[in-house]
Amino acid sequence: MLWRLRILSFYGLLSLFTFIFFLICYIPVTFCNVNYQIKYRIAIIFSYAFVWLAKICCGLKYEVEGLEKLPKTTSIVISNHQSFWDQMFMQLIIPKHSWVLKRELFNIPLLGWGLRMVKPIAVDRGTNSSVAQILREGQAKIKEGLWLIIFPESTKVPPDKTVKFKPSAVKLASVTRVPIVMIAHNAGLFWPRGFWFQQPGTIRVKIIGVIDKAEVEQTDVRILNEKVEQIINSEKQKLLNY
């Protein structure tokens, strides 16, 4: 009973904060000529508040390993995807970036409107045009100096399950000749697919390593995608034991 109350308190406070945030930030920047840098900072503030409320209300803490491995140059981040939490948290550790996400997220009241503000690459999953869109818009984002965060599983996957990685992220890295940063985490142990927390605890996020642009350029996309998939899934499995 107490655990349910903690979860409800999280969503209650998040809803209140989101509504106030919407009035103070979203409406002014939408109807005024505000540059992208300001919009981006506003989005980061919201993510900090989200992660902080999850920690305070539901005891969802986190530890990050390997921050020193992040390269200084624009890169593509490839991570496993287990929870809504990881979407929000990634914004706190990755340099100025954009996303590849499902267009349907725009339909979430208030939150979806906020996502539109930072202009991610919004794709209709399952359509034949999504790969071409990611390559086209992704190249433009990279040229702007933005990192890209991509979940190649394309959906939230339970911690003990694996799915084949879609090759779009690796293809984009090959075309743009940028490094690939590999990340694994175990957020799904505490907050699985959906909106209901499983248990309090400490989420482990591991920046596994970087595939430099020389290897990206020289390696076949299919082979490299299989390598990335194997490495991330292997690290994800290790994190199940924490």
Automatic annotation (TrEMBL):
GO terms for biological process: phosphatidic acid biosynthetic process. It is an enzyme of class 2 (transferase). This is 1-acyl-sn-glycerol-3-phosphateacyltransferase. The chain crosses the membrane at residues 7-29. The lineage of its organism: Bacteria, Pseudomonadati, Pseudomonadota, Alphaproteobacteria, Rickettsiales. The keyword Ion transport does not apply. Pathway: Lipid metabolism. It comes from Rickettsia prowazekii (strain Rp22). Its EC number is 2.3.1.51. CDD domains: LPLAT_AGPAT-like (cd07989). Residues 75-188 form the Phospholipid/glycerol acyltransferase domain. Pfam families: Acyltransferase. InterPro entries: Plipid/glycerol_acylTrfase. Keywords: Acyltransferase, Membrane, Transferase, Transmembrane, Transmembrane helix. It comes from the Bacteria. One of its GO terms (molecular function) is 1-acylglycerol-3-phosphate O-acyltransferase activity. The gene is plsC.
